[in-house]
Amino acid sequence: MGTQLRISREDGSLPCEVCGFPTMHVAKVVADDGTVLGRTLICTTCQRGRHRPEVAETEAPPDEVPAG
User: Fold this and answer.
1) Is residue 60 part of a domain?
2) Is residue 57 part of a domain?
3) Is 45 helix (H, G, I), strand (E, B) or coil?
4) Start-to-end Cα distance in the chain
5) What is the mean pLDDT of each run of 10 residues along the chain (68 residues)?
């Protein structure tokens, strides 16, 4: 399943520096076995509008220059 981000419902929220809404939370990064790997800040408002980018097959890796 991979790692998960878990946001506590009991902890408060902070204003996001990007969108300005008070929806910035401290989230735990949790492994499959339940161990906490670390913590990160995540804005639930900004994440809602963001989709997971799919890597295009024609896209060159960042260290290579496309032949043209």
Assistant:
1) no
2) no
3) helix
4) 39
5) 83 91 93 92 80 51 56
Question: What pLDDT, on the 0 to 100 scale, is given for residue 12?
Answer: 87
In this predicted structure, what is the pLDDT of residue 16? 93
Please report, for residues 32, 40, 49, 60, 63, the alpha-carbon distance to residue 12 in angstroms, rounded to integers and kept in the order given: 26, 14, 22, 41, 41
Give the C-alpha separation, 16 to 46, whole Å. Answer: 9
The answer to the question of residue 11 being in a domain is: yes
Domain that holds residue 32: 3-51
Residue 66 lies in a domain: no
CA atoms within 13 A on the CB side of 61: 2
DSSP 47: H
pTM summary value? 0.59
Q: How many domains does the chain have?
A: 1
Q: What is the pLDDT of residue 55?
A: 46
